[in-house]
């Protein structure tokens, strides 16, 4: 696995698309300062997922996009792509099968980055996961940028630990551990939320279970009611079946009469068929004669057509003969012309043959002369090439000498520059400024300690506020849960009441509902929905209106009347809201005659004998005793209100009593002036429904009013006790309108309650949201305080680090001054050696230049001779080509003459053959003309015979036509008689169809009932078998009434409770399962975390020991002695930091900060190489790591670099020529255009091969 290619476009100074190909393991990037070399290192770090602009030497991520220059505009997109060779499969996971992995990152001006893996868009984490455990990453030890070498050894223990973790391959375990901790935290939060939900569900299920029990009882009673209704429909079906049997018998009688009429019609049709057969025979005879006449006409036409065709054919043959004669004459003329042309061509061929032979001989002679000139020229070329090679060799020797002089000159110049730079550095070294900085930093540390204490106090206050808001949110959540539970209870109650109200108002009856939908009256309101009744008078209004509460309010009766014929079964009542308010009818309650019709045999418990009005002298005490009697009767009804009694007792309790002899009228008590309709309000007048009905607050008051009631007047109490002058009606059971108005009032009240609860819930939710917002703001303030505290701690650490660094630099400056003195002495010696070498090389160069000039003069003389040979060769080539061209032209002319002679000869042969064919053709045409005359004479004779035959056939045709007309007259008379009989059959058939239609209507009614029974889930045969023989519709109607009363006694029903109970129970089971799953998941995550911790400890400890061993081996190699080792900061291997302790030869420093810059660099290199020895990353990028090293240390550094290049690919950014010497390829970065970087690549191995080849040639 190695880095194969880097592509940059728009990234920092690389505005143009640039590609860096890395074919080897030692690739260098060189160039002057500021040309953009380090941008390559930033690009690699950035494409691998770096998100800190500071580490990319920028202020924001948009700074990596090219920002323009003096000559170029800014671009909007930066893009970097690296291609990694994965033939060894070191990258695992889903990309292990790819030989190459391309990773690309793009960023626009808005700072948003986009990542791609092998051309597919991905997340940043996907990119970082690719490199986990490989030693690569945006901040791994495989990428050492400028200044990072010293920071590496001075890094915090935790930061240095990260490098060892990457080398140990546990970085991915650490990442997984963080994920596991987050998952555990989330799992615990989910467990708390889940436990709250489970507790709430338990309370809700207990509440729903009670409602579900009542709903189940309701469903059972409704099932019995539906079964009874299905049985009632079956009884009706049985009645209709009897009617169908009777209608089938009547239908059979009428079908027998119809069959007699049909028999008579068939006899007439038989006679008519015979007459039609005779007519058909006559018609056939007529048709035969007619066809014969037509055949004769056709024969005449054919004869005439044959004669015309023969005449035309003779004319056509005559014209063809004339045309062929003309063609034959033209052929004779063409044969004479061809003969003359052939004679001319034969003469030209005889003259051209001698000239062609002469030109061929001259061409052979010129070719021999040209071959001799070419041979002379070849010999001259060999001499020329030998002299040219000597000139090149002499020139290369001179250039090599000049190159050595230039190298010595550059080395001298470098030594001069180095000498001047060291002198300048020695002058700049001073300790006064550092002393002042150390004093200032100590003062800043004391001031910052006070700020840190203040920030910690502020953080404690914010943490307390967050805890208080959390408790407040829990209180709000509890209140919101209570409101939601109340809302669910009210909504369930409303749902049950609405279902009962729909059923009570008749909106669930199938036939009536279908008819209303057909009439577009489904949405029309029922009367009960529009009434507003004074509180306490609902039962009285329900008693008076009864089924009329279900009346449908319509604006006029035109629409219902128009569709009334389509109503099959059922009862429907309409209330005309547009009708004027008529006068009150005479009687508001039932008439006495109607009681006997409704209940011809009432039971004794249903009868109340109403005595006639007593004379004026009757005592009040006597009248009060009647009231007590009525009270006892009503109490008896209540006590005996069992299901059996309710099935037997109808709701009516009054019958007329015998009238006593007339007596003087007593004094009438004053009549209550309050009519019942004043207790009711509606959008329309309701006087017609309550006419004559007065209100009484109690039964005693109603009895007091009774003497004053006239015919058609009545009084009613709030309990529904309805009394008139001669009747009393008291209702205690459930009926069609029982509880409708009170239920409607409760429905409206519950709807208002739901609206209020919804508003209350919204208020609690708003309060919850506000509390969450305040807690979030408090948490943000807490986070800011925490960040401020952390920043303060970091700043404090920076101050401590800065003061330590300045103290170390103070000591370093002192040592540096001594090192500069030694280095200046070495440089002076190098300068003397360079000057001596330049003098010797100049002397050798003069000698080689003289040799080169002599060889060049020899080359010029040979060039003159070569020019003379070239002239001779050109002249001979020109003469040979001219003669060859003339001979070729003569040969082409002779070939053309031969071709034309052959073509004319063949053409003359073909024309002769054509002449013979024309003679034959003319003879054939004359013979055809003679053969046409006999057939023409015969055709004229046949035409005369056919015309005689036609005259005979016309006479026979006339006689056959008269016979056909006679037969047609007989057929017409028989057909008229048949039509008369057919009309009588149609009359009988119409009567039969009417009978069938009546039967069909009965059958359809029976099928409709049968479909209703089937739709209810029952079968007619089964129901008939279950019904007793004495069953009748009246008994079953009474049974349904009893079931309705039992349903009404159940009270409010929450029909949704059954489903809600099942759903909530299922949800509870699901929640329990989730709770167990989360508990198991928590155990699994904790186990996984312990396993990862154990694996991390083991791997880190093993890596720590191995890196320590490698560091102890490599450090002496780089320093020529000394000792270095890693130490753990802390006892826990899982979290302990790492520090490095290094002592170069002869030193006893106590900290790494006391080392010089070069020593720190070598220490860092030793650590990096030790990490690579243990876990070599696929490639390593070193950015000017050798900058602080002197030549001796550079040689040791590059030797180790070259040794490790067998296992690791190195991309080295350097200015040091000693380092460049070992690199296999060099990539130059230039900035010829200001602000724009460009690439120049050189393969050092190929360059060295070329240099050796040139040296060998010299």
UniProtKB/TrEMBL annotation:
Entry's Gene Ontology cellular component terms: chromosome; cytoplasm
Residues annotated as domain SMC hinge: 521-706
Keywords: ATP-binding, Coiled coil, Cytoplasm, DNA-binding, Nucleotide-binding
Statement: the UniProt record of this protein carries the keyword Nucleotide-binding: yes
SMART domains associated with the record: SMC_hinge (SM00968)
Region of interest: Disordered: 319-353, 956-987
KW rRNA-binding (keyword) present: no
A GO MF term: ATP binding
Residue ranges the record marks as coiled coil: 170-211, 740-767, 1068-1095
Binding site for ATP: 32-39
Compartments in which it is found: Cytoplasm
GO biological process, any: DNA replication
Quaternary assembly: Homodimer.
Protein purpose: Required for chromosome condensation and partitioning.
Family: Belongs to the SMC family.
Record text about domains: Contains large globular domains required for ATP hydrolysis at each terminus and a third globular domain forming a flexible hinge near the middle of the molecule. These domains are separated by coiled-coil structures.
Protein name: Chromosome partition protein Smc
Taxonomic classification: Bacteria, Pseudomonadati, Pseudomonadota, Gammaproteobacteria, Candidatus Kentrum
Gene giving rise to this polypeptide: smc
